[in-house]
């Protein structure tokens, strides 16, 4: 059973704004040669962004520089959450790498100190953490734990969800492969733009409740609702505030847990505390996190409430050779320190307001701008055509024109028509002004 209409196409995040070899003929010879070498070794599995791929060689703060010396304002990269090549992160990693880096089965103070500080940012109910290398691994482990605690197998996810690339997390990612296994149930993400705020809350909870009932009737049962708390891959839906509450209640009434995937919204990006779930006044049972934790050094984590951890005990064995290694922890600690010391959550709030103030009038000025959704430094601009229908082609054209004018972002959503704006957290007022100016010019110049 699925709540998605039969035959509806879901756009994969691997396909949106993707370079096609058909575009290579118009590229410079040296770029074509590099693409040929890449394809000869990496194949076509790993996609590239943009009609004209960007060959980057250097990064600093909000700016990236390509092999020809052209600079780009990065409005997309949450991996370098505190900016590219932040000096404190570079120094912390270099110092630790020159001192010790080993696997995780030895005592080391760095991982303990960091875990304690990170747990302090979560609700008091949370008491334990497990470190992994990727968010995919964290989500995989979260599903395993939920299944053990509940005795059920079923997982409910949204139609455009992307939760990772392991066997389990990819199965929970219908945006990558909509042919999900029998234990996965799909619901549409909330859509206040088309449904209205109150109805989007009601319909989302009702869809989740239907899938809980279906999993029960099938004998599979509900282990968890797994949700990215800003619905990033579904097209960025930060509100209305509190929308997750009724859906979480429906899952728990069916015996399931709530897993909050904070890989994209977490670490202060939304400008209101550290975590996306806080905005909805819910306390998850498990929280997963990843990409922005360590400025590109691979580290991710799962946090569990004390109650959930006690229910598991040692019955879900897990070991990760590199998850939480000394170098990764040095990077993660430096990122956490920078977020605090440089007031980056406050900056996300201030620059987010600037972003909203600049984007909101564009709904009146440009017919293609159907909706603007902003929470801190995470924004979605829905590009539409006649009658408000999703316009994927125009969204892709906007992204590629911005790339050609020195601004990098991409798209999201089940139709690939939502511009995904997600700059590093230290963005300055002048840099936001620059983005808004270039963005307005690109919209003005649309055919």
From TrEMBL:
Gene Ontology MF terms: transaminase activity
Pfam families: Aminotran_3 (PF00202)
UniProt xrefs under InterPro entries: Aminotrans_3, Aminotrans_3_PPA_site, PyrdxlP-dep_Trfase, PyrdxlP-dep_Trfase_major, PyrdxlP-dep_Trfase_small
Keywords in alphabetical order: Aminotransferase, Pyridoxal phosphate, Transferase
PROSITE patterns, per database record: AA_TRANSFER_CLASS_3
Domain of life: Bacteria
Gene3D superfamilies in the cross-refs: Aspartate Aminotransferase, domain 1, Type I PLP-dependent aspartate aminotransferase-like (Major domain)
PANTHER family per record: ALANINE--GLYOXYLATE AMINOTRANSFERASE 2-LIKE (PTHR45688:SF13), PTHR45688
Similarity remark: Belongs to the class-III pyridoxal-phosphate-dependent aminotransferase family.
Name of the molecule in the record: Aspartate aminotransferase family protein
Protein's organism: Tsukamurella soli
């Amino acid at each position: 059973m699925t709540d998605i209409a039969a035959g509806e196409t879901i756009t994969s995040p691997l396909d949106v704004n993707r370079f096609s070899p058909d575009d290579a003929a118009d590229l410079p010879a040296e770029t074509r040669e590099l693409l040929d070498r890449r394809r000869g070794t990496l194949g076509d599995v790993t996609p590239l962004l943009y009609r004209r791929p960007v060959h980057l060689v250097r990064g600093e703060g909000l700016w990236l520089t390509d092999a020809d010396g052209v600079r780009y304002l990065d409005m997309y990269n949450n991996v370098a959450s505190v900016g590219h090549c932040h000096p404190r992160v570079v120094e912390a990693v270099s110092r630790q790498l020159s001192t010790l880096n080993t696997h995780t089965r030895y005592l080391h103070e760095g991982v303990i100190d960091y875990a304690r500080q990170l747990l302090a940012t979560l609700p008091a109910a949370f008491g334990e953490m497990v470190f992994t290398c990727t968010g995919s691994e964290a989500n995989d482990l979260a599903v395993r734990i939920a299944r053990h605690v509940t005795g059920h197998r079923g997982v409910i996810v949204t139609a455009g969800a992307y939760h990772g690339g392991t066997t389990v997390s990819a199965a929970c990612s219908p945006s990558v492969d909509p042919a999900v296994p029998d234990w996965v149930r799909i619901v549409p993400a909330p859509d206040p733009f088309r449904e209205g705020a109150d109805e989007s809350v009601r319909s989302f909870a009702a869809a989740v409740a239907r899938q809980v009932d279906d999993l029960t009737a099938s004998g599979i049962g509900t282990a968890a609702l797994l949700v990215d708390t800003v619905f990033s891959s579904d097209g960025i839906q930060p509100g209305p505030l509190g929308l997750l509450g009724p859906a979480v209640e429906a899952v728990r009434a069916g015996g399931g847990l709530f897993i909050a995937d904070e890989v994209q919204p977490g670490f202060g990006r939304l400008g209101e505390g550290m975590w996306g779930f806080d905005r909805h006044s819910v306390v998850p049972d498990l929280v997963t996190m990843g990409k922005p934790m360590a400025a590109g050094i691979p580290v991710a984590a799962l946090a569990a409430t004390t109650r959930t951890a006690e229910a598991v005990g040692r019955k879900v064995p897990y070991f990760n050779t590199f998850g939480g290694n000394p170098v990764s922890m040095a990077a993660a600690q430096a990122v956490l320190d920078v977020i605090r010391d440089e007031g980056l959550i406050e900056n996300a709030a201030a620059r987010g307001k600037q972003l909203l103030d600049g984007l909101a009038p564009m709904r009146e000025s440009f017919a293609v701008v159907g909706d603007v959704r902003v929470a801190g430094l995470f924004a979605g601009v829905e590009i539409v055509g006649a009658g408000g229908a999703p316009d994927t082609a125009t969204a892709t054209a906007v992204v590629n024109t911005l790339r050609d004018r020195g601004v990098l972002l991409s798209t999201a959503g089940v139709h690939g028509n939502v511009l995904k704006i997600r700059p590093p957290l230290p963005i300055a007022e002048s840099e936001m002004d620059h983005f808004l100016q270039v963005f307005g010019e690109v919209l003005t110049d649309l055919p």
